[in-house]
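Service request form, structural biology core

Requester: graduate student, group of Dr. S.
Request type: structure prediction, single chain
Budget code: on file
Notes: please return the result as structure tokens.

Sequence provided:
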Amino acid sequence: MNARIIGTGSYLPERVMTNHDLEQMVDTTHEWIVTRTGIEERRIAAPDQTTSDMATIAAQRALDMAGVKAEDIDLIVVGTITGDYPWPATACLVQSKLGAKNAFAYDISAACSGFIYALSCANDYLKAGNGKRALVIGAEILSRIVDWTDRNTCVLFGDGAGAVLLEAQDNDYGVLSCHLYSDGNYHELLHQPGFGTTHPPTIEGIEAKLPYLKMHGNEVFKVAVRSLTEVSKEALKKNGYTSAEVTQFIPHQASLRILEATM
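Core staff response, request fulfilled:
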């Protein structure tokens, strides 16, 4: 029994923020951003849009592609660090908006790796014979936790959602393997200090910009390149392939420099 992707869907907000727009907001230039990141524009959610709104649209498009009804879904997993609320899970809100009354739903908070973690959980659930179909969604509104006065971070992030529909099938193809790792020793390289039990909500915390993400870019670059390279090689070896046999490589698009260094 394998879990096969039978439908995909995505959603991008209408508003486009270009590098030239950012030139009017922070001390940066289009050339500086493109040279260091490869990014020319990013999408920004409307003020009245939520993460579950975007996730629902992406999920519905995946269902439409597969020709599957929402009530035929057994599981919904959403990878996000910018949920509608601390709780309940954004996945539960998506379940409600889709009308997926027979699915149970939960979120996974794994930041950049969230979609892969969610895919792995859904894949294992289906391969164990516990269900027939699972929606896996990655959705973020990072623009709301970005400090728009910090040129080292605000140029990198945008908003959007992507979804896949997995179906358990008795064949030899589908998701071949998933490889997950964590290292909490690096937690301060890229994190959101507040608000949580370490830094509960306070006026002083807001003034200190604790709700906004913080990043040590050079260190993140080194860890990302090393980790992405190692885990890619592990996935190839696990399944008996070489890099020469790969025709399409779709990594997390953190920056062009990371991708070029990895490839």
